Amino acid sequence: MPGAVPRTSTVALTNATLSYVEAIARKGWKAAIREDSTLAKGVNILDGKIVYSAVAQAHGLEFHPLEEVL
Hints:
63% of the residues lie in helices and 6% in strands. The chain is mostly helical. A two-stranded antiparallel sheet has the order 1-2. The chain is flat, with a radius of gyration of 15 Å. It starts with 5 loop residues before the first helix and ends with a helix.
């Protein structure tokens, strides 16, 4: 439970996410998601189009592959 150990949970979250933040800062978000498939999996909507299939299916909306929208 993060509330029970706030400092430890903050350090853990930072350790898990800092490399992604740095990549976005260095390369810009488009280049970062093009180069890192793990980071790209975090994109749900881009330019008003749903690029994550599970979100599109859950809401009965049209899915657009991320590569086509970029």
